[in-house]
Amino acid sequence: MHIIDRRVVIASLLASSAIVTPTVAQTAPAATTTADTAAPQAGEYEGDIVVTAQKRDQNIQNVPISIQAIGTKRLDDLNISNFNQYTQLLPSVSFQTTQPGSTVVYMRGVASGGDGNHSGPLPSVGTYLDEQPVTTIGGTLDVHIYDIARIESLAGPQGTLYGASSEAGTIRIITNKPDTSDFYGRVDGEVNSVKSGGIGSKIEGMLNMPLSQSAALRVVGFYQRDAGYIDNVAGCRSYLPEPTPTSCTSANGGVVVDNAAFVKKNYNDTETYGGRAALKVDLDSNWTVTPTVLYQEQRNHGTYGYDPKVGDLQVQHFFPEFRRDRFIQGALTIEGKVGNWDVTYAGAYLDRKTYTSSDYTDYAEAYDSAYSSVGGLAGYFYYQDNAGRTIDPRQKIIGTDHFKKTSQELRVASPVEDRFRIVAGAFYQRQTNAIFQDYQIANLGTAVSVNGSPGTLWLTKQNRVDKDYAMFGEASFDILQNLTATAGGRAYIYDNSLIGFYGFGRNPAVDPADGRPYTATPFNAAGSSQTGVAGCYLANGQTLQQAYLGGGD
């Protein structure tokens, strides 16, 4: 557990009281600074809590599904800014993570068999930013939390209104929308220190600007630096058939290496910065158009695990380590009425690129030991160059993923006050990922390298495409004033393909005659359906009792 002490550095008009900041690795009392100019207190939740979990505005007390909502005030009071922090307030949510921005989320312990591997199954929990899904197979998008109206958590079993990897549940991040009524802004800042670590800081701001009586612009910007607390300490490795020597010098002709060039205290710091903008235009009293754009970049340095054999919060790594995660999303939401029916269109395009460099020395040593016992690649811990000389066997991984995602949804909803109510629509999504992982050893001989990639022991180079088509509907009928029956269905088709190469250069499973990497082309296309029925009963006007039965194939 790492303690953060925060100290105010920005002059303020309003200072908040001491609060607790929940994080995965860091918890602490904190004081923040806020400068406001007539900002309304949206999301205070002093009255009714209105959510859109069933794709229409409803009081949370009347929503017959398992739902939790975290409003603006609580997000601000707890100084929440990222995924790891807000999920600690959601009991049904669990996750596994290796570092900020690389997280796989689960609900009620349900998993699709995947662990975030870019070649594996799609996630079982969907994440939405407003109306648009932002789930990628490489992990949940870690959207910076600031100027957020609420976060909704819909734990499964999921109904039929959501798809896009939402079988086990859905997390929805709802932003504050542009406001035509007034001009206001806000700035928040902090400086913090981590026990046994370094100094961090954060500055955030938003501005709401009415452009006319029917149009407004809302912009948000942020920068955050999370201090490191893991040290990369000095050490050496000896790759010898006999016992390891006691000093970082070569002995008996073996290979001995040290990490002096990479020793660093507080190795694992993170920088996150970006912004978003939304423009709201009321075309008339019934129709509104809201285009939005989001840009965010996160830069992680070092590693977020430590080796107990080396020391508490310490590692001995032999290559520079970092990860960059950049994403940009453009979205368009159109809302209006045809007669007394609500009509909503939501479309988005997401482009996400990640670049990772990781030390693989520990794994290389373990794999070499295992392979040597069966006469494998390493030849008793050693790799050779083209002249047959023993070389430094340390490995590093260079990995990139380039995700592109297009989604569109069109739906209609009958008036919420009707005794018989319907929500129905159509959904389309196409997402791609260009996968590249290069396991490198400097000066590795071409006889062991992957064909056409000198110095590469293992290569993954694949292109993945996942397409989803769906039609959905849900109908509710008030049998009595306090008894409602609901039935829904979702018919969908998915079309997934993964094309490319992965493997070693020596003795591949298939030996191409022309010497090029072997290309495998698995393909899967299928159709399916999902149905569900539910009932809810409001006892004594206060207690909502519900039951749900669903199935699919």
Describe the model.
This protein is mainly beta and 553 residues long. The protein has one domain: TonB-dependent receptor, beta-barrel domain (Maltoporin, Chain A). It is built from three helices and 33 strands. The strands form seven sheets. The protein has an 18-stranded mixed sheet that branches. The N terminus is likely disordered.
Write the layout of secondary structure elements.
Blueprint: E1 2-7, E2 14-15, E3 19-22, E4 26-30, E5 33-37, E6 50-51, E7 58-59, E8 67-71, H1 72-77, H2 83-86, E9 93-99, E10 102-107, E11 125-129, E12 132-133, E13 148-155, E14 169-175, E15 184-194, E16 199-212, E17 215-226, E18 231-232, E19 236-239, E20 255-258, E21 270-282, E22 288-301, E23 314-315, E24 322-338, E25 341-359, H3 361-372, E26 383-384, E27 390-391, E28 396-413, E29 420-440, E30 456-480, E31 483-504, E32 523-539, E33 543-552
Parallel strand pairs: 1-4, 11-14, 18-23
Antiparallel strand pairs: 1-15, 2-5, 3-4, 5-15, 6-7, 8-13, 9-10, 11-12, 13-14, 15-16, 16-17, 17-21, 19-20, 21-22, 22-24, 24-25, 25-28, 26-27, 28-29, 29-30, 30-31, 31-32, 32-33
